Amino acid sequence: TMKNPVPQAASLLLEKLMLLVHIRPLPAGSGGETPPPAPGYYDTSCFKRGDLLEVPRTLFIHFGIYLGENRVAHLMPDILPAITGDRRQIQQVVTNKRLILGVIARTASVRVDTVEDFAYGGSILVNHMDRLFEDQVLGSEEAARRAEKLVGTTAYSLLWNNCEHFVTYCRYGAPVSFQTDKFCETVKMIIRDQRSVLASVLVGLASIVCLGLAPSTTLPTIFIPFFLWMAG
């Protein structure tokens, strides 16, 4: 007998949704946000202005452009820019609640934080993506200037404007996201399998919230596998 793919697909979908909203994992027993490491936790002497910094998490990778002097420009979903103009509030470290609401509202900001706030305790890879773009790497100063010009409020979209799109545009001149490609392939795999009806419904509902798809285009995708299953 073939293994029921629904639990596996639903689990995979949950992981991908955590990728969408950039949720920071909290330590066991923690009731609130984990504080970022103290200043000086990272050795920034090996970073150069214009470097692409990559922080692997458990379920996703976060990206930023190093601007020098312990400053990193990175794109994050955030609800606050949509409801207030108070720069002091907006500049505070983004909490998980702000992240999730920012994804739902499709609002983000390209912000400048310290390396500690950007990495949040994770290990940092420097220019790890250069190998994928070979001769497309722009000059370091050009990459940094592009990042600085984009600082401020922007729209958020998993498909068209996430943190990976931001850094690849700055350093390589073309906004692409390999994480998005993987997510889309996962969605296609789940929806094509008529047996994973529950997961297909979850994918469709999640796409309305996270991808910003109109219900008129998404609902048929949700329920076609369901009707096929009912008829089958």
From TrEMBL:
Domain of life: Eukaryota
Keyword Cell cycle: no
Reaction catalyzed: all-trans-retinol--[retinol-binding protein] + 1,2-dihexadecanoyl-sn-glycero-3-phosphocholine = apo--[retinol-binding protein] + all-trans-retinyl hexadecanoate + 2-hexadecanoyl-sn-glycero-3-phosphocholine; 1,2-didodecanoyl-sn-glycero-3-phosphocholine + all-trans-retinol--[retinol-binding protein] = 2-dodecanoyl-sn-glycero-3-phosphocholine + all-trans-retinyl dodecanoate + apo--[retinol-binding protein]; 1,2-dihexadecanoyl-sn-glycero-3-phosphocholine + all-trans-retinol = all-trans-retinyl hexadecanoate + 2-hexadecanoyl-sn-glycero-3-phosphocholine; 1,2-dioctanoyl-sn-glycero-3-phosphocholine + all-trans-retinol--[retinol-binding protein] = 2-octanoyl-sn-glycero-3-phosphocholine + all-trans-retinyl octanoate + apo--[retinol-binding protein]
GO biological process: retinol metabolic process; visual perception; vitamin A metabolic process
Compartments reported by the entry: Cytoplasm, Perinuclear region; Endoplasmic reticulum membrane; Late endosome; Rough endoplasmic reticulum
EC number: 2.3.1.135
Occurrences of domain LRAT (ranges): 52-179
Coiled coil: none
Signal sequence interval, chain numbering: 1-28
Topology in the lipid bilayer: Single-pass membrane protein
Residue positions of the active site: 163
Molecular function (Gene Ontology), one example: phosphatidylcholine-retinol O-acyltransferase activity
KW Transcription (keyword) present: no
Keywords: Acyltransferase, Cytoplasm, Endoplasmic reticulum, Endosome, Lipid metabolism, Membrane, Sensory transduction, Signal, Transferase, Transmembrane, Transmembrane helix, Vision
Membrane-crossing residue ranges in chain numbering: 197-230
Pathway the protein contributes to: Cofactor metabolism; retinol metabolism
Gene3D superfamilies per UniProt: endopeptidase domain like (from Nostoc punctiforme) (3.90.1720.10)
GO cellular component: endoplasmic reticulum membrane; late endosome; perinuclear region of cytoplasm; rough endoplasmic reticulum
InterPro entries cross-referenced by the UniProt entry: LRAT (IPR042288), LRAT_dom (IPR007053)
Role according to the record: Transfers the acyl group from the sn-1 position of phosphatidylcholine to all-trans retinol, producing all-trans retinyl esters. Retinyl esters are storage forms of vitamin A. LRAT plays a critical role in vision. It provides the all-trans retinyl ester substrates for the isomerohydrolase which processes the esters into 11-cis-retinol in the retinal pigment epithelium; due to a membrane-associated alcohol dehydrogenase, 11 cis-retinol is oxidized and converted into 11-cis-retinaldehyde which is the chromophore for rhodopsin and the cone photopigments.
Recorded family membership: Belongs to the H-rev107 family.
Protein name in UniProt: Lecithin retinol acyltransferase
Gene source species: Pardalotus punctatus (spotted pardalote)
Upper lineage: Eukaryota, Metazoa, Chordata, Craniata, Vertebrata
